[in-house]
Give the backbone structure.
Amino acid sequence: EYGESIKGGNPPIYAVDLIGCGLEHGASEWIPEEAGLFFPSGWVEGVETLIQDIVLPRYHQVAKDINNGCTVVVQGGLTSVGVLLSSRNTLSVVSKLVLTSPTTWDEMINPIPEDELERNYNFLRSKIFGNLAFSILESRKAVQLFSNLFLFTDECDEEWLNYTMHCASFKARTPVQAFNAGLCGHRSFEDEMITLKQKVVIISGKDDKRSVNRELYKKIRDCELKTLSGLNVLPWENPTDIVATLRE
């Protein structure tokens, strides 16, 4: 989502493909029937492996500072991934957590009922109704309508539409189905949030009406709320200010 803004950075910025995502980059398909995955812990473990085996060793070779960890940036509904990743690691691994357009506090502490999760997931995985829904939602017109209504202050650009169409495929649906079913919200993350050791920055778009519902994030020990121009996909809408915030 960061486009040109992540290139040539110092320190470098990594745009991570979660398990099952990034098929267009050569990643492997995730088949739930063959390889189970716990949410959000499965995604967290994948990112942890990347940080510990690649990101930090490369950084320490240059910076020679083994006590300085990563700044983790999480967009939108993947908030629980960032919170869990931060809570289970020391400051030398994750030193700062930045949440852009995050899930509201109430959504993070109130789990989605199990029967609702099961109903959602079974519908989205249905060969008839699920396939029909995805065939409609993956159309360029549907993506454009949804993006203009809920994601962007101004109309989405052609680059966004082209990239979305490029990423959409039948094999790429499985992580989307799990995410949209609400599996990342199957339990409360209140205990993790109120005990976070890291500094947490909450960034909302100035046109995002849900920003008022993020005030409760101040319950976190060290939390700063910021507002930038944009609506709901700030890393794409406003990458310059996002990257500038990361470098502060």
Summary: The chain has a mean pLDDT of 92. DSSP finds eleven helices and four strands in the chain. The first helix runs from residue 41 to 63.
